[in-house]
Amino acid sequence: MRNFKIKIIILISLLFLTACSSVQTIPKYEKKENVTWKEVEPPVIVLNLEPGDIIVKEKTLNPIGMFGHAAIMKNDRVIVDYPKFGNKSYTIDIEYWLEEGRDILVLRYKDMTDEFKKRLVKNMEKYFGKDYKIHFNKLNTDGFYCSQYIWYIYYITAQEMGFELDLDSDGGNFVLPYDFINSPYLEIVN
């Protein structure tokens, strides 16, 4: 029985250590139809990005990208990213973060205010620099994976301002990059 548990833990770890996952659960919100991904072709120019914008990279066939990926804009040029297991978060210019041939969606919180944005950026800084870790609890802040960090930053900012906000469209134990796409609180602004 002990060997079976170890094998299960290793299997689950291997699944999550490569990158964010897209484990299918029952959607909490209505699925958005006719989603158009922004093509990333050189020269890449992404205009009108704002602090708090969520950039979702499409899924790829390689093990690291097969589940999609997400990062959040700290300002109009700099992105905060939790890349993969073994790495801490880092900031990088959006132009260097994008990959040729890997399309993106830009999602924006519909009810963004100046006060929310200010607190959101402050929380990005507060929870920045932790190790990439997979948790079965989205509220665990010992470390983050890409989409959990984004979810938590929005969640805790809303809590501080006295309201509830859950960007996870299916409400599961994990929040995954593609879960943001169907959130009723976010709009696609490609």
Explain what you see.
The protein is an alpha+beta fold and 190 residues long. It contains 4 helices and 6 strands. Strands 4-3-2-1-5-6 form a 6-stranded antiparallel sheet. The termini are far apart.
List the helices and strands and how they pair.
Blueprint lengths: L1 H16 L36 E4 L11 E5 L4 E4 L8 E4 H4 L6 E6 L4 H13 L19 H15 L25 E3 L2
Antiparallel strand pairs: 1-2, 1-5, 2-3, 3-4, 5-6
Helix pairs in contact: 3-4
**Order of adjacent strands in the largest pleated sheet:** 4-3-2-1-5-6
Rounded Rg? 16 Å
Q: Report the mean per-residue pLDDT as an integer.
A: 82
In total, the number of strands is 6
Q: What is the 3D shape?
A: globular
Task: Work out the helicity level.
Answer: 25-40%
Order of helices and strands: HEEEEHEHHE
